[in-house]
Amino acid sequence: MGARYGIMGSVGTRILAVEDDERIRSAVKLALEDEGWTVDEAESGEEAIEKFARSNPDVVLIDIMLPGIDGLEVCQRLRRSAPTPVVMLTARASEDDRVLGLELGADDYVTKPFSPRELTARIGAVLRRSDAGDTGELEPLPALEAGRIVVDPMSREVAVGGEPVHLTTKEFDLLELLMRQPGVTLKREHIMSAVWDENWWGSTRTLDTHTSTLRRKILDDSDPPSKIVTVRGVGFRFDPSAVSSGSSSGASPTRG
Question: Which class in CATH covers the domain with range 4-130?
């Protein structure tokens, strides 16, 4: 992505808003355009997939309840083709529904009814976290290496044993955070604030879901995991001494 992000908005940012309710879609479009963002609209899952391929948006906002292909399926399909951030828009109150969306690759979700301020704040936070291409005047960050795992903070690419591994935005941020402080136990609240920004709220079950998926992708799905270690009642730590033993039996990296 080539957009440059400010405190709340950006220049040249394109958002694909997928919502079948015309009234809500119009309100969303107005709120996003007030931030200076360009908004493409889609009314169905099928239309969303088609427009995504054509417009190459910086972030996709998807309502879960769509006619035809629902928002969860759209999210899953988009994740197979690109690491573009996805924010789910849902009227469902069930935590299980929200967690399912995150498991399928969504970076965040906004629950209806919502305020324009909340919506733009959440999208703005996702955009800033995913702005890997804008390095400004900062010195290049060296790659993080631990045994077979190599993380490049600049390109946001990950490889395990030389094989590329596709991670979602938050999975990458989580892995980078843990690897930058090897052997240090990070509290769950600290991780949530660092990866999900300071506005996170509610249950930390999201962290457990992302940790479980991340372990599988970096071949740490042994029982118990040896690389990303759970410290019960506290949080997680990355154990660099455990990564030299090779991949776990029968596992293979998930590629984007």
Answer: alpha beta
SS3 9: coil
- The span from the CA of 104 to the CA of 138, in Å, is 33
Side chain identity at 250, as an amino acid letter? G
Q: Which class for 254: exposed (0-12), middle (13-18), buried (19 or more C-beta within 10 A)?
A: middle
The answer to whether the CB of 84 falls within 8 A of the CB of 57 is yes
Residue 26 tokens read as 């119009």
Cα–Cα distance between 87 and 171 in angstroms, integer? 15
- Spans of all domains in the chain: 4-130, 144-245
Q: pLDDT tens-digit profile of 167-186?
A: 988 899 899 989 988 888 99
Burial classification of residue 113, based on how many CB atoms lie within 10 Å of its CB (0-12 exposed, 13-18 middle, 19 or more buried):
exposed
- Tokens read off for 140: 């290049």
3-state DSSP assignment of residue 53: helix
Is the predicted pLDDT of residue 114 greater than 90, yes or no? no
- Does the domain made of 144-245 have the CATH classification 1.10.10.10? yes
Contacts of 5 (CB under 8 A, 6+ apart): 13, 124, 127, 128, 131, 134
